[in-house]
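Q: For a teaching handout, I want to show students what a protein-ligand complex looks like in token form. Below are the inputs, and the small molecule is manganese (II) ion. Please produce the holo structure.
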Amino acid sequence: MKQIFKTRNNGELIIIAGPCSAESEDQVIDTAKEIARSDKVNIFRAGIWKPRTKPGNFEGIGEIGLDWLKKVKQITGLLTTTEAATPEHIETILKYRDAVDIIWIGARTTANPFSVQALADVLTGVDIPVMVKNPLNPDIKLWAGAIERFAKAGIKDIAAVHRGFYPFQDTNLRNLPKWELAIEIKSIFPKIPIINDPSHISGNRKYIAEIAQKALDLNFDGLMIETHINPSAALSDSNQQITPKTLIKLLDNLQIRKASSNNSEFSELLERYREQIDSIDYQLLELISKRMKIVKNIGEYKLKNNVTIFQLKRWLDITLTRKEFGRSIGLDEQFVKKLLSLVHRESIRKQSEIMNKNKLT
Ligand code: PEP
Ligand code: MN
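A: Here is the structure, written as tokens, with manganese (II) ion included.
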């Protein structure tokens, strides 16, 4: 089968749109027809089995929804995708091979290696593309591990989907994007495209355009956006779904930047800036190394005088004065605090090593 998931390399984006859940034949077909008016959308999504936090909510329409996806393909020519969370879901999808082009693995499933392996086992020897959403918790190994399990089962057409992570705190967003993890996944699997799901990150339709733009600025390869013909009547994720009309406007307004430029003036200037950054990075590391040598001397001195490693007053003093200085030279206060904690933690580790050098720990 033709490879669907390719990294962007200045080429076309992978745009996936459709409702959170398939609810009725009319809702699915009407949404798909409106979405297909945009020539930017390639794939239609709809959940058939829905993972819900509490029982008693709409848990998906089930197998009959696959007939509707088949109709979507026939009417619009779009490719289709739905979520599979159990081996039985996959077996059912494979019975309707002409209805579903791509399977996606949800965040709750990716979090469980037993579930992922069970799905990979039924997919062994099957030629179907798979999208792997990030797990609920920000564990890059779990996400990469799930991708590996499908790759090992012989799936060649794979994409990763960044849908954000459970926040554990009050936030405006439903799930926190961890852009650095998404970028790390890209460096682990350079050939696997990474798609952003601004709908599940936002939880609220008003943030979707902003998150989508940010993803494209970071060179994501595509977007998955929940789209419903009548979002306020949606049976799941009503607050974060947008109408096809809003989707089309959103896609038209996106600034699509290139990953690189052929312009030689641009390349030369970029090269010069990068040289400056390289030189500053080496200076930073040399300074940190100098600092650590002094930390070591202090550690030995403290050991000789039987004084504790951690001195609260000194630490509070350091954070306060450095934060103030940082602010005065245009650095973000939180950033300075995080940077200092990291350096301080390493200093403590070094001094503990010195204090305990004769012990096993
Ligand atoms: C979904 O895409 O509708 C879904 C359930 O997503 P997630 O697994 O990211 O929560
Ligand atoms: Mn949803």
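A: Two things your students might notice: The chain has a mean pLDDT of 94. The chain is about 50% helix and 10% strand.
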